[in-house]
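Our working data are protein records whose layout never changes between entries. Getting from the letters to the tokens is the skill we practise here. To make this concrete, we reproduce a full record directly below:
***
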Amino acid sequence: ASFGEELHQKIYKQFLQRDISAEEKKKVEAEIKAVDEASEASRNILKPVVIDLDGLSETGVRYSDTLNDIIEEAAELAETDDIEKIIKRLMDETSTMTSKNSKINKELKKSSAQLDQLRQNLKKARNEARIDDLTRLPNRRAMNERITEEIDKLKTQGSSCVAIIDIDMFKRINDTYGHAIGDKALSTIANQIREAISSKDVAYRYGGDEFAVIMPDTTLTQAKKRLEEFRKEVKDHEFIIRGIVEKITVSIGAAHIDSSGTVESNLEAADGAMYLAKQSGRNNIKTKDDYQS
């Protein structure tokens, strides 16, 4: 299989075979399309350069042969006119070679600029495929990649945590006020998470009415303390919807990222703690230790 085909299979296996949202699936497919287009564009960009390089190679061989001929002829010449003819011939051949080199340089500069733009477009497509449109937080795909990085890092050092945040009774907001208001509430809570976490923590849109936070170099005790501050902030916030004050609360589950585990097993640990928080009356935090005790 080609590199492009192998990449498609890898992306498909990792994301399209999982139960992901339609929005995320669309973004994954867009990234695959961008890779396809970049592959085709790069071939088209480099094609004229390759053709010119082939021509330059032929010109170079001819130029070398001509120089050898001129050297041999010059050794046998005695008349000034004949020498001038040789010099003119040499100048003509050199001019041809220089012109060919100049064309190659222009093509290379043009190709370099086009390839740089292509690289920027691919980078943009890659980044967009990892951002949630509504909240502008990184999405679940980006989160999975980051957890994988943390698992690798933790095999040699440190302690990191992952938390899952679920909005309590969020369906009631959607059913009562509609999805547009529900989306505004999600965006507001996403901003509250951004403001509450530390600069090294990263918040994600986990899916639906759930968020996640990866907290590098953090113990479970430290994580619980920061998350508790966020929980209180949400609880105390007054959401004014059509003149009505609505209170929203969150249930949170947190767990150490286990370096011997997988992305799925680490998320399951935080997820289990979050469901325990819901079963314990909502609007509270539980950890993996509570969940497994």
